[in-house]
Amino acid sequence: MFVTNSMQKNVITIGKEASVFEARDKMAANSIRHLPVIDSENNLLGVVTDRDVRSAMPSVFADVCNLEEEKKKVAELKVKDIMTTNVTTVSPMHTLQDAIMLIHRTRVGAFPVVDEDGKLKGIISVRDLLRAFVNVLGIEEPGMLLCILVENKQGQMKRIVDAITEEKISFGSILVARYWDEGKRAVFPYLLTNNVAHIKRKLKSMGFELLNPMEWYLDQLPKHD
Amino acid sequence: MRKTGFLHDDRYLLHRTASYHPECSDRLKAIYKGIEDGELLPKLTLIKAKRADQRWVEAVHHVKYIMRFEEACLYGLTEFESADNQMCRESFEVALLAVGGILDTLRMMMEGQIDNAFCSVRPPGHHAEVEKAMGFCYFNNVAIAARYLQSEYGIKRVGIVDFDVHHGNGTQHIFEADPSVFYYSIHEHPSFAFPGTGREFEKGIGEGEGFTMNSPVLPGQSDKEYHKLLERDLFPAFDVFRPEIILTSTGFDAHEDDDMSGINLTTKGYSWIMERVVEMADKYSDGRLISLLEGGYCLQRLPELAKNHVEILMGK
After folding, report:
1. Where along chain A do its domains lie?
2. Cβ <8 Å between B195 and A215
């Protein structure tokens, strides 16, 4: 669960003396929105984003008489003139949770990954985190979702896991969420099996309350008056 | 009234699964009983199982996978590749008998001996991938049937309608790049139900783009939602595709009394679906329609569901 396992290691970068047009073309050609700017020693100097580039381009509202002049100005602009230098970076040994929280708080879409010496090691974006999320949830593996209501006391999860493991069923993931009854939790095991009826019966016979996962979801939707 | 075939064979009962397993031989007994008690047997063309030539299985599955499955049976293993796939020494032979029975039924239809048919076979097939057994399935019966129709009879457009409550991942993956087979599936939404595929945006790849269509249904939904989705998705799509033959992956497990899913189709809802499928076959494929059994585990409901299903095929 470390950034180093999920980041892109072959980073597409640009030098600070490159033109803004070069930066724009590089991002378009590679379908990316963030270009780390580095020096010849692979030290991170800044980041240039597609938004930085767009802001540098002449406005469509620019005076037609001045358009040629504006274009000329842009042609002279270099990456170093528009890049962000105050960049939030993460270390390869940050956890994915760190990266998710950072993105959540800063609303930045990607972070350069930099080691202790300031060298660029990779880049981690929302896309990489989504891929890790798909992996962790087991979304791409064949399985089915249960929703079990449990009392909020110790040892409940062990009973569930033991009961399912005894049936030789593997887990894709388990999520635990709040429930409208205080003192209860909704547990969502994603089970890698098609044989759902048997395990459902078993859990019920153990005294667990099984909920249609949809009922829980519907509770999350805004209520109409 | 149409000439309807009914493939049933006691040898399909020889594929044994563990005692608690839902995919059990009692399913076929329940289906047979429903058709027998409905006094339909004398009006049907009864078809027996036949061992398939392995080359037809190889039209879909990798030969190494077929050998792996055969060896697992010979060793006497009781599960194959996952605890879901319970089996016994006879399972390989029974799987070949299922495929062979289906291909013989297709032959009879193509030769005009029958108009359509219901194949009550085990093990089911639509989860089986080219090289992987999954979800109680070993050989992908419906996929092999489509390939057989193409190479033996030069059929150019095969339409598959899969209304088992689970998405037929195997069938979709086998044909997703192939524009000659249209795969349509309506099933419980993959975020809730096995096998986790069949999302609305899965529409085929490459040349096959636009020839795969999925209608996921949220748990708790019933007949009304099925009406809406079939009318919105399947009917217009088949009106453009115009299948020369329709094959169905028939699963009775979306029934409200079947505890293998969260979908609540009624018995009437099932009849409505099959009536529309038969209408489409009449409209596009000269009535040619073969229904292949996939899931359906409620032993109390299977008799009536199977009886209605066959009656609709017969046009009674």
Report:
1. 3-135, 144-220
2. no
Q: Check residue B23 and give its pLDDT.
A: 96
Residue A168's closest chain B neighbor by CA? Answer: B83
Q: What is the pTM of this model?
A: 0.84
Does the interface predicted TM-score (ipTM) exceed 0.90?
Answer: no
Q: Do domains A3-135 and A144-220 have the same CATH topology?
A: no
Q: Which residues of B are catalytic?
A: 127
Fold of A3-135: CBS-domain (3.10.580)
Residue of B nearest to A172 (CA): B196
Neighbours of A75 (CB within 10 A): 10
Q: How far is A139 from chain B (nearest CA, A)?
A: 7
CA dist., res. B31 & res. B253, Å (int): 13
Cβ contact A168–B20 (<8 Å): no
Confidence grade of residue A220 (pLDDT, cut at 50, 70, 90) = low
Is B247:B146 a contact under the CB 8 Å cutoff? yes
Q: Which residue out of A135, A144, A204 would a mutagenesis test of the B interface target, given it has the greatest number of B Cβ atoms within 10 Å?
A: A144
Does the structural domain A144-220 have CATH classification 3.40.50.10320?
no
Assess contact for B221 and B264: CB atoms under 8 A.
yes
Residues in chain B whose beta carbon is closer than 8 A to a beta carbon of chain A? 20-22, 82-84, 127, 134-136, 166, 169, 191-197, 218-220, 259-262, 297
Q: What is the DSSP string of B117-137?
A: EEE--SS--TT-BTTB-BTTB
A193 has a chain B CB within 8 A of its CB: yes
Is residue B124 within 8 Å of B137, Cβ to Cβ? yes
The residue count for chain A: 225
User: Dmax over Cα atoms in chain A, in whole Å?
Assistant: 81
The three-state secondary structure class of A76 is helix
Residue A8 confidence (pLDDT) above 50: yes
- Using an 8 Å CB-CB cutoff, list chain B residues near A214: 192, 218-220, 262
For B207-274, the three-class secondary structure string (H helix, E strand, C coil) is HHCCCEEEEEECCCCCHHHHHHHHHHHHHHHHHHHCCCEEEEEECCCCECCCCCCCCCECHHHHHHHH
The structure tokens listed for B273 are: 């679906």
Question: Does residue A118 come out as left (phi exceeding 0), alpha (psi in the -120 to 50 range) or beta?
Answer: left
The full set of domains in chain B, from first to last, is 4-314 (3.40.800.20)
For residue B154, what are its two tokens? Answer: 């030069």
**CA B257 vs CA B27, B71, B222: distances in Å:** 14, 37, 12
Q: Residue A225: which pLDDT band, with cuts at 50, 70 and 90?
A: very low
